[in-house]
Amino acid sequence: MFLLHELFFEEKLFRLFSDKREKRKKMLFEHKNFLILSSREDALVYKNRFEIGKKLVFKSRM
C-alpha cells in the first residue's frame, strides 16, 4: 500500500480529506482495486469511486 497524492484531486475524496470541520488526520491508500481513506477512528473503503463499506476502529473513547 502507498499514499496516492494524485487522488486528492478527485472531488469526493478531496472533500472528505480536506474537511476543516473534522480535526482528524486521514490517509489515503490503494490496495488492489480498492481505495481506503483511514483515520485513527474509522476507515472508509471505496471501489470504483463508490463507498462500499465503513469500519469503525474505535467505537467509543474512554
Principal-axes shape call: globular
Largest sheet: 4 strands, antiparallel
| Cα Rg | 12 Å
- The poorly predicted ranges are 1-9, 56-62
Strand content: 35-45%
| Alpha-carbon distance between the two ends | 31 Å
SSE series: HEEEE
Classify the secondary structure makeup into a structural class. Answer: mainly beta
Task: Tell me about this structure.
Strands 1-2-3-4 form a four-stranded antiparallel β-sheet, with no helix packed on it. It is globular, with a radius of gyration of 12 Å. The protein is 11% helix and 37% strand. It has one domain (5-56). By secondary structure, it is mostly beta strands.
Secondary structure elements and pairings:
Blueprint: H1 11-17, E1 27-31, E2 34-38, E3 42-47, E4 50-56
Antiparallel strand pairs: 1-2, 2-3, 3-4
Provide a short characterization of the protein structure:
The protein is mainly beta and 62 residues long.
